[in-house]
Amino acid sequence: MVLRIYNTRTRTIEEFKPERGNRVYMFVCGPTVYDHSHIGHARTYLAYDIIARYLRAKGYSLFYLMNITDVEDKIINRANEAGQDPIKMADSFTKEFMRDMEALGITSVNLYAKASEHIPEIIAQISTLIEKGFAYEVEGNVYYDVAKFPDYGQLSRQKLDELGTHRIDPDARKRSVVDFALWKAQKPGEPFWESPWGKGRPGWHIEDTAITTNYFGPTYDIHGGGLDLIFPHHEAEIAQAEAATGVKPLVRFWVHGGLLMIRGERMGHSLGNFITIAELLQKHDPEALRLYYGMRHYRTPLNFDEENIAQAEDVLDKLRSIYNEFSALLDSKSLQPEGPESEEIEKLTRKAIMDFDDAMDDDFNTPRALAALISYSRAVEPYAARALNRASVERVLHTFNYFGSVFGILNPSMPQRTDVIGNLLRIILGMRDEARKRGDWGTADRLRQEIIAAGVGLEDTPSGSRWYLASSNAKQST
């Protein structure tokens, strides 16, 4: 199957072919660490985590790079307001961000590159731009001369005389109002590094291109980030890198994600309407959040809705229940060496994988892929109560593991954890069954309530009791 990706640069869906054989280089703009990470960030980074997981599942050798902006005006301003050292504050929020990524199961990033650890590369790129006539110095500040780069505006499809000045550095000494800072002279009390232009610090845009050209070279495959970064940030990246290296294009596929909305507005620190990742994880299973975000295509806006997260938790609980049921069959003595269901399961499995891959190949269409996963779980569920052979059970579990590895759910380590839990539960459920047989409904109900209170879902079916690890706020039945 052929992978097709929507390219913001061309505004079309194009067949994806890496620049260097099977090797894929992907960069995603990371956080500016001046505040707690919020669930809008989670949507962005989970989307690219799923993209990265699928690229690897297709057999690509992926190098996934994300920067950490730990030197920037917002950090300095927030630190000054709080009476803190900006470097220490940035480091604290960076560590919190990494904890949030780990809690969300975002494990696909190969390297997190801090701006503060790449100052030599930044200075070198600025020096190149000055030497080539694309940048100029004004009293210790260095600005990019936008007029010298005719392609400026190509990504956002704006003409130079139509460009706004949103987030562009105000300075009457600049040649043009749209020129942006590459290096900022130190102000009293600010952190600084030595440079050919005096003490100072890098501008926001130059951090990313100095990092990517250092690790990827002049051209790479995929650049990700939110739609709000197209201008001026990504526009500036193109201008800097292509002018410095003389190679076009900087990026072959610009892949932008839709924003998370809350009450009709974009969620963001500047608006003060954000919910932190840590706050949401106190109430919801991280795998349910992954499903919730995957229910919408990564390019579409998403309105935050607690009810939809609850629906995602119900879906997750059902998937876990079916997965655990088939896992338990591997230890069952009822497995047959052969079975008439083998051909049926193989047919269902092949179709499900084809539907799933076809959806993901269509610009990473996670809603369709998730529908394929849910349909498959419903189709194979009745077979768990039949006398299956081991090969069929393993085939189903392998397929669930494949789907789960792309979405980041049904964690592969879960069967290891549930082995012990399962053995204990089988003992407890056996005690409950004995109580029910002798009519001791009080004991049976008490055991059920204690199992549920421990965070384990319980479902009585005609073929016996079914258990599963419940989500943190899953609705429990008695």
Structure in a nutshell:
The protein is α/β, with parallel strands linked by helices and 478 residues long. The protein contains 14 helices and 16 strands.
Write up what this structure looks like.
With 478 residues, this protein is an alpha/beta fold. 46% of the residues lie in helices and 16% in strands. The protein contains 14 helices and 16 strands. The strands form 5 sheets. It has a 5-stranded parallel sheet with strand order 5-4-3-10-11, sandwiched between helices. Strand 10 (220-226), helix 6 and strand 11 form a beta-alpha-beta unit. The chain is elongated, with a radius of gyration of 26 Å. The protein starts with a strand and ends in a 9-residue tail after the last strand. Mean pLDDT is 88; it is low at 414-420 and 472-478.
Q: Which key phrases capture this entry?
A:
2 domains, 478 residues, five-stranded parallel beta sheet, four-stranded antiparallel beta sheet, alpha/beta
> What gross morphology would you assign?
elongated
- pLDDT below 50 for ≥5 consecutive residues: which ranges? 414-420, 472-478
The helix fraction, in percent, is 40-55%
Total beta-strand segments: 16
Largest sheet, spatial ordering of strands: 5-4-3-10-11
| CATH class group of the largest domain | Alpha Beta
What is the fold named in CATH at topology level of the largest domain? Rossmann fold
What characterizes the major β-sheet? 5 strands, parallel
* Distance from first to last alpha carbon: 46 Å
The average pLDDT score comes to 88
Radius of gyration: 26 Å
Structural class: alpha/beta
Tell me the β content: 15-25%
Write down the domain tally. Answer: 2
Order of helices and strands: EEEHEHHEHEEEEHEHEEEHHEHHHHHHEE
